[in-house]
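TA notes, week 10

Several of you asked for a full example with nothing omitted. So below is the full record: structure tokens for the whole chain, then the designed sequence directly under it. When grading your own attempts, check the secondary structure regions first.
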């Protein structure tokens, strides 16, 4: 036995390297298990974070859908929808990663996702009843998608869908996610416990091995212990090196919150050395006071075991220089291996200061973009409104013809255009145009076309070829061949029935022959407007005869080119088939049927191109007239709703062509009128405006040789005129006016008093306020008695009908300007009426009368007209209509007969 034992000892001694290998293997196994565990725990933490992120995404979607139900601002709705869609994508991607069982493995300095098998516990949560988390999340995503789609279509959100999303789906999803997160945590803890148990076993094996070797040979044991100690020191150094070379702040705290671990990255980032900071209270030293509570609560909860796992926490951190940096903390607790008593709170922090700065910059950029987008949208909306305002009334009622026009734009600003006007009282000019493309650029061309038509209207041009020739030059000067415009132009003489047609590359119009019960195409050729200066529209133009009952149909190519969802164009065959069934129907019905067929073909009302249709009937022949009242198609109409919606710029080109139509009391807008130079305001519901006639009122900007009072209230037998020759005549004439009106026994007392007050003010203005030199300095001091010179006129006219009363005072000064007028009544409105100050007289004239008009020929003539509705009580709290008409020298020299 002894000999055998001795041989064994000898063998062991000879196996020195084997013994060392065994000890080394034990140590390496311990190191491998420890390293693997740390890496797996890091991957498990990533999975836990992904799982917990799902809860945050569901909460975000819940909150944003609630916001979507209450927000009305289109820009905010768009931003909320975008955020919801982003959260939905993240939630779906996170679900796919988790339900596939993917895991995260450390590769260098990055966590890499690898395919793996989903543990049974998680497989049951995701796919088995009763939880079926995968199905719940997909149902939740589908429900939220329905809500987002409803907001995208600008539909009212379904409250039942919102209730189902928040009260039925969301709680189950959140509960399932919480169970999945808890399972991930438990699996991680289970793995950690298994590893620690394995480490204990390996440790026992190592001790046993050391004991066996020590019991056999002390000296080899001592040598092995020294080597093991050396290796352990190396491993510690390696671990320290890993901690100190990590690109993150790693700070360990003892149970009292004192710093026990402070890696090199933390030293470099914060500025303190580890030796300086060890033993210091972490929260007081590094965390601002207003953010300490949340981190302390987390620390206390994790150290006493009430919190097993914490989500990332973002706080500011104070560095040595006193500045603050932004840190995202990931926290865990190191436990004593046997008792599981917490011995260290380990906080790993990532410096996100630069990211926060970039986020702030991104937010600022987004805010600037939103502001720019809002401004651009406002400008586009304004452009669209102004474009619509330059179009004439879609209901066409002209000498000898009646019809309807309609323009549908595919975007806010369109490239289609229609217009019409009357020359010599019986020649109707019809224009339909189409700019290549649509949008703001096309809208600019439409405005240029309208501007080009305007002088033709006033020049009385009715030849279609001449009109197209002039517009071709306008388009060339505007777009320089970058954009083209097709246009069809037809002139119908309602006296003779003669129709003249010229074409600039536009789709050909149709002519319905009532007697023959058929449609024919009007054929004329020509290059589009803006293509060539040498375009000839005279040679290919045609003339033919229309009979009463015949009809013209004009349109743009968007009508026939509009496609169905299958890509089939509406086409000429479908159009002509419809025309053959609508030859005799009224224009309104014709229009309704055509648009109905187009909507049915396209399966909706959203079109890809602008569409314009115009249909007119030649209803009767008219007698020729010597003069004509120009149509008000050159007026830019501002609606009450549009103007109150924002601060919109008004074109400076022609203030006299801008008319504001008031739907309600507008006195609060006087200051803005003064800023925008709006001098013409007509209340839509004003009875006296209706009695006078809108066409007559809108055409007041055309200077007439007739006096305004007799234009507005013509053919009245009761009229009186007075002429002043001396300032002292004022009282005598006022008494004469009062006596004459009283004798008629037609005027209520309150109206008589209003007229006398207005007459007093108007005479004072003509005698003292109006006479001024070129620098605006009055010639005469108020109240000074004087005789009027032979070149000075102050004339008073009064007209009385059974319904209306009118007063007009005319002088030959013409010194009042639109700016002074608007500023005066605005100042009086805002600051109150004080005699002799701030335009009180003009303000009283406006408030006392039912209609107030001033016409100025600069340095030549002032004509102030006030009208009263005798059936309407005098009410100074009601905003009456007013028009301030300021004519240039050109207007005065080219007077139009009334």
């Amino acid at each position: 036995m002894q000999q055998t034992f001795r041989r064994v000892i000898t063998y062991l001694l000879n196996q020195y390297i084997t013994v060392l290998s065994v000890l080394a293997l034990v140590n390496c196994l311990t190191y491998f298990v420890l390293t693997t565990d740390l890496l797996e725990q890091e991957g498990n933490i990533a999975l836990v974070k992904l799982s917990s992120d799902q809860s945050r995404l569901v909460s975000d979607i819940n909150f944003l859908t609630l916001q979507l139900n209450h927000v009305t601002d289109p820009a905010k709705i768009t931003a909320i929808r975008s955020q919801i869609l982003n959260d939905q994508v993240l939630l779906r991607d996170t679900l796919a990663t988790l339900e596939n069982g993917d895991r995260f493995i450390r590769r260098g300095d990055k966590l890499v996702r690898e395919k793996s098998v989903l543990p049974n516990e998680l497989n049951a949560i995701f796919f088995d009843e009763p939880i079926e988390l995968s199905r719940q999340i997909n149902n939740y995503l589908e429900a939220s998608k329905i809500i987002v789609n409803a907001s995208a279509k600008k539909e009212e959100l379904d409250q039942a869908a919102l209730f189902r999303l928040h009260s039925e789906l969301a709680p189950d999803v959140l509960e399932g996610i919480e169970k999945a997160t808890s399972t991930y945590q438990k699996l991680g803890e289970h793995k950690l416990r298994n590893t620690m148990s394995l480490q204990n076993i390996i440790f026992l094996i190592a001790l046993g091995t050391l004991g066996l070797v020590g019991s056999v040979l002390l000296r080899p044991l001592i040598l092995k212990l020294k080597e093991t100690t050396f290796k352990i020191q190396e491993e510690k150094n390696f671990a320290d090196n890993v901690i100190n070379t990590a690109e993150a702040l790693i700070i360990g705290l003892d149970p009292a919150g004192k710093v026990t671990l402070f890696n090199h990255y933390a030293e470099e980032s914060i500025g303190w050395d580890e030796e300086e900071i060890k033993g210091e209270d972490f929260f007081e030293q590094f965390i601002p006071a207003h953010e300490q509570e949340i981190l302390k609560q987390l620390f206390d909860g994790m150290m006493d075991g009430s919190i097993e796992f914490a989500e990332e926490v973002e706080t500011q951190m104070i560095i040595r220089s006193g500045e603050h940096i932004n840190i995202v903390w990931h926290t865990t607790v190191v436990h004593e291996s046997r008792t599981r008593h917490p011995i260290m709170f380990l906080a790993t922090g990532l410096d996100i200061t630069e990211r926060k700065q970039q986020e702030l910059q991104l937010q600022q950029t987004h805010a600037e973009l939103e502001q720019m987008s809002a401004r651009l949208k406002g400008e586009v909306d304004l452009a669209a409104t102004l474009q619509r305002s330059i179009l004439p009334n879609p209901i066409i009622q002209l000498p000898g013809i009646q019809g309807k026009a309609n323009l549908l734009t595919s975007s806010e600003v369109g490239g289609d255009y229609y217009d019409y006007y009357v020359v010599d009282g019986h020649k109707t000019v019809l224009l339909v145009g189409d700019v290549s493309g649509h949008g703001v650029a096309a809208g600019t061309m439409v405005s240029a076309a309208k501007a080009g038509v305007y002088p033709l209207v006033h020049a009385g041009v009715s030849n279609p070829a001449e009109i197209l020739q002039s517009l071709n030059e306008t388009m060339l000067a505007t777009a320089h061949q970058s954009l083209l415009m097709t246009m069809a132009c037809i002139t119908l003489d309602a006296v003779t029935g003669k129709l003249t047609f010229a074409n600039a590359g536009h789709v050909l119009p149709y002519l319905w022959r009532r007697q023959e019960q058929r449609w024919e195409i009007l054929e004329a050729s020509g290059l589009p407007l803006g293509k060539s200066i040498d375009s000839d529209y005279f040679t290919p133009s045609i003339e033919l005869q229309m009979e009463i009952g015949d009809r013209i149909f004009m349109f743009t190519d968007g009508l026939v080119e509009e496609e169905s969802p299958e890509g089939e164009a509406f086409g000429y065959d479908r159009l002509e088939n419809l025309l053959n069934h609508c030859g005799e129907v009224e224009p309104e019905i014709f229009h309704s049927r055509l648009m109905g067929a187009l909507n049915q073909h396209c399966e909706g009302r959203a079109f890809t191109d602008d569409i314009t249709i115009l249909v007119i009937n030649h209803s009767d022949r008219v007698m020729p007239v010597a003069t004509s009242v120009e149509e008000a198609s050159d007026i830019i109409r501002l609606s009450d709703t549009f103007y109150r919606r924002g601060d919109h710029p008004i074109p400076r080109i022609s203030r006299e062509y801008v008319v504001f139509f008031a739907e309600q009391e507008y006195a609060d807008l006087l200051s803005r009128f003064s800023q925008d130079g709006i001098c013409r305001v007509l209340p839509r519901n004003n009875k006296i405006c209706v009695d006078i006639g809108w066409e007559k009122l809108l055409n007041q900007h055309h200077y007439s040789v007739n006096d305004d009072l007799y234009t507005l209230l013509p053919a009245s037998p009761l009229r009186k005129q007075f002429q002043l020759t001396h300032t002292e005549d004022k009282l005598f004439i006022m008494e004469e006016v009062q006596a004459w009106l009283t004798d008629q026994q037609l005027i209520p007392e309150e109206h008589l008093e209003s007229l006398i007050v207005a007459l007093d003010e108007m005479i004072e203005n003509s005698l003292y306020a109006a006479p001024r030199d070129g620098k605006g300095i009055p010639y005469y001091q108020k109240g000074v008695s004087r005789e009027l010179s032979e070149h000075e006129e102050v004339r008073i006219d009064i007209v009385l009908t059974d319904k209306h009363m009118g007063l007009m005072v005319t002088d030959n000064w013409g010194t009042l300007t639109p700016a002074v007028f608007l500023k005066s009544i605005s100042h009086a409105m805002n600051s109150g009426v004080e005699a002799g100050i701030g335009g009180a007289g003009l303000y009283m004239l406006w408030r006392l009368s039912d209609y107030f008009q001033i016409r100025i020929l600069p340095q030549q003539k002032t004509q102030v007209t006030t009208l009263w509705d005798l059936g309407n009580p005098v009410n100074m709290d009601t905003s009456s209509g007013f028009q301030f008409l300021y004519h240039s020298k050109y207007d005065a020299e080219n007077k139009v007969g009334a």
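The first strand starts at residue 103 and ends at 107. Use that as a sanity check on your answer.
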